[in-house]
Specification:
Pfam families: YbbR (PF07949). InterPro entries: c-di-AMP_regulator, YbbR. This protein is 19% helix and 48% strand. It has 316 residues and is an alpha+beta fold. It folds into three domains: 97 residues, Beta Complex (RNA Polymerase Alpha Subunit, Chain A, domain 2), CATH 2.170.120; 91 residues, YbbR-like domain (RNA Polymerase Alpha Subunit, Chain A, domain 2, Beta Complex); 88 residues, RNA Polymerase Alpha Subunit, Chain A, domain 2 (Beta Complex), CATH 2.170.120. Strands 2, 9, 13, 14 and 17 form a five-stranded mixed sheet that branches. It has a five-stranded mixed sheet with strand order 25-23-20-22-26. A hairpin with a 2-residue loop joins β5 and β6. It starts with a helix and ends with a strand. About 3% of the residues have low confidence.
C-alpha cells in the first residue's frame, strides 16, 4: 500500500516537472521568435497586366527566392504557407534582345506586398528578367453561313437570313491571322419551316496556336411569312422607236407575277408597273426583249413571266 502511494507521488512530481519544462521551452521559443531574423524564402509568383497587344510565348519563373529581414513568427508562418505575389508586366522595357523587367522593378513590386515590418534584402534572380512575347494583331473576319433551308408550301422569307454578328474578332499572331479569310458556321439544316426562326450556330474555328476568337457562336435569324400570288397584265411600251415606224406586238400585254402577303398585293394594278422593250435596229427575228422599268419597291417578289414578244412593222 505504501509502495503504491510512493509511486503515485513520484508520477505526480514527474508530470509537474514536465509541465513546467514545457512551459519554459514554450516561453523560450516565443521569446526567440519575437526577435528579428534574416531568412530565405521561396515565394510563388503570378504575372498580370500584360498589354493586350502582346502574347506571352514562353513561361516565366513560377517561384522567386527572397532574402527577408523580419520577425521570426512571420518567417515561420511563411515557411508553412506562402501566398502568391503578383508581378505586373505593364511596365516592360525593351532593348535589342527583347522585352524585359529590371531587377529593381521586381524588387520594388515585391517589397510593396510585404508587411511594413518586413524588409526585402536580396532577390536571388538574374539582373534582368526577360519576357518572351509576340506582338498580337486584331482582325475582323466575316462569317459564312452554311444553311440548308427548306420552307413549307406557300411560305417564304420576308427578308434575307441574318447573321449576328456578321463578323467576329480574331486576336493572335500576325502569321496566324494572315491565314484566315473567313469563318464558316457548322452546317445547319432546317426543313419545312413555316414560322420565323432564331437559333444559335457554332463556328468552325481553326485551331491555331495562341489565337482567340470572339464570339465563338452567332445568332441566325429569319422571318417567314405565308405568301399569296397575283398575276397582273401590263401593256408593253416600245422605246427607241424611229418616228417613221409603227409596230404592233404579239401579245400586246404581258404577265407579271407578284408574290407577298395578301394585304400588300391585293390592290396592285397595271399602273404600278412599266414593261418596256427597246426597238432593235437590224433585227431579223422580229422579237423584242422585255424588261421591267417600274415596279413597287416593297413587294417581295416581282417576276416577268415572258422574256420577249413578237412584233410586226407597219411603215407610214
Amino acid at each position: 500500500m505504501q509502495a503504491a502511494f510512493e509511486h503515485q507521488r513520484k508520477q505526480r512530481r514527474i508530470k509537474v516537472f514536465l509541465f513546467f519544462l514545457s512551459l519554459s521551452l514554450l516561453s523560450w521559443f516565443v521569446n526567440k521568435l519575437s526577435g528579428s531574423y534574416i531568412g530565405k524564402l521561396e515565394v510563388p509568383v503570378t504575372y498580370t497586366q500584360l498589354a493586350d497587344t502582346l502574347l506571352l510565348t514562353q513561361p516565366l519563373p513560377e517561384k522567386i527566392q527572397l532574402s527577408l529581414n523580419s520577425g521570426g513568427f512571420y518567417l515561420l508562418g511563411q515557411q508553412i504557407h506562402t501566398n502568391a505575389k503578383e508581378i505586373s508586366l505593364n511596365r516592360l522595357q525593351k532593348n535589342p534582345k527583347g522585352h524585359y523587367i529590371t531587377r529593381q522593378e521586381l524588387k520594388r513590386q515585391l517589397a510593396l506586398q510585404l508587411p511594413n515590418d518586413t524588409g526585402l534584402r536580396e532577390l536571388f534572380l538574374n539582373d534582368t528578367l526577360y519576357v518572351q512575347v509576340s506582338p498580337l494583331a486584331v482582325k475582323e473576319v466575316p462569317v459564312v453561313l452554311d444553311l440548308n433551308l427548306e420552307l413549307g408550301s406557300d411560305f417564304m422569307l420576308q427578308d434575307s437570313v441574318t447573321i449576328s454578328p456578321a463578323q467576329i474578332r480574331v486576336v493572335g499572331p500576325i502569321s496566324s491571322l494572315d491565314t484566315i479569310r473567313q469563318i464558316a458556321s457548322e452546317p445547319l439544316e432546317l426543313k419545312q419551316i413555316q414560322k420565323g426562326f432564331d437559333l444559335e450556330a457554332s463556328l468552325i474555328l481553326p485551331k491555331l496556336l495562341n489565337t482567340q476568337y470572339d464570339p465563338m457562336q452567332v445568332r441566325v435569324r429569319g422571318e417567314v411569312i405565308r405568301f399569296s400570288e397575283k398575276i397582273i397584265q401590263v401593256p408593253v411600251t416600245i422605246t427607241q422607236l424611229p418616228p417613221d415606224i409603227q409596230i404592233r406586238t404579239f401579245p400586246e400585254t404581258v404577265s407579271i407575277l407578284c408574290r407577298d402577303r395578301i394585304d400588300k398585293i391585293r390592290d396592285l394594278t397595271a399602273s404600278d408597273f412599266l414593261v418596256s422593250a427597246p426597238f432593235p435596229e437590224g433585227d431579223e427575228k422580229n422579237t423584242l426583249a422585255l424588261q421591267i422599268g417600274k415596279k413597287p419597291t416593297d413587294i417581295h417578289t416581282v417576276l416577268l413571266l415572258e422574256e420577249e414578244v413578237h412584233y410586226i412593222i407597219r411603215k407610214e
